[in-house]
Amino acid sequence: MIRIVIAEDQRMLLGALGALLDLEDGMEVVGQAQNGEEACELVKKLKPDVCIMDIEMPVKDGLDAAEELYEEPCKVIILTTFARPGYFDRARRAGVSGYLLKDSPSEELATAIRKITNGQRIFDPELVDLAFTQQNPLTEREREVIQLMADGKNTKEISQELFITPGTVRNYVSVILEKLEVSNRIEAISRFKEKGWYKKSR
Fold it and tell me: Distance between CA atoms of 62 and 77, rounded to whole angstroms?
C-alpha cells in the first residue's frame, strides 16, 4: 500500500485529489495539509511513502517544505499550476522525485506516483524544456542584490547588508537590468518573480 500525504491550500481541490487517489488500487491518503508547515509535520509524524505538494501555500510554501523534507525518506512530488523554470530548478535542488502540472490528466498522477515509489523521477516535459531554455543568467551576487530589491530594500540598505558600497550596488543593478532585458528596477523585480527565481524571505 502506497501511503500518501497531500498538501494543497484550496480545500475543494484538496478533497477532490484525496478522493481520487483513495479510489486507486494500492493507494491510501493518510493525511491532508493546507500549508507547507502542516505538510512537514504530517510527513514527520505519519512517515508516508509520498507527499504531493502544491507550491504557493500560506505559512510555508511547497518549495521551502520540500527543502525541509530533504533528509526524509518520503518522496516529494510537486503538483502545481506554475510552469516556471526557477521553481523547477529549486525543486530539483531540493531533491523532489516529481514535478507535475495540475492540468495533467488524473491517471497520469497515479501512474507517476507508482513509478516514483519504484525509484524513478518524473518531471513534466514542458518544465524540462524550460529549464534548458530559460536558465537564470544572474551571478550569485547579482541574485543576492535583486533578491534584496524584491524584498523592498533600497540601495543604502542593500549596501549595508552585503557589505559593499552604494556605487557597487548601482553597478550590479545596471548589469541586472541589462541581463534581464528590462529598463528599470520594478520591471527587473517583476521579471525575477515571474520566472520563479524569487525566494520569499523567512
Answer: 10
* Burial state string for 36-45 with b = 16 or more CB within 10 A and e = fewer than 16: bbbbbebbee
pLDDT in tens, 164-185: 999 999 999 999 998 888 889 9
Cell numbers standing for residue 191: 521579471
Domain that holds residue 48: 2-133
Q: Last residue of some domain: 133, 166, 184?
A: 133
Please tell me what DSSP assigns to residue 94: T
Q: Count of domains in the chain? A: 2
Residue 202 lies in a domain: no
Q: Where are the beta strands (DSSP E) in the chain?
A: 2-7, 27-33, 50-53, 75-80, 98-101, 122-123
Give the CA-trace dihedral at 53, 56, 62, 64, to 10 degrees: 180
d(CA 170, CA 68): 34
pLDDT digits (tens, 9 = 90+) for 110-151: 899 999 999 998 888 766 666 555 677 888 899 899 989 999
What DSSP character marks residue 179?
A: H
125 and 150 belong to one structural domain: no
Assigned domain for 200 exists: no
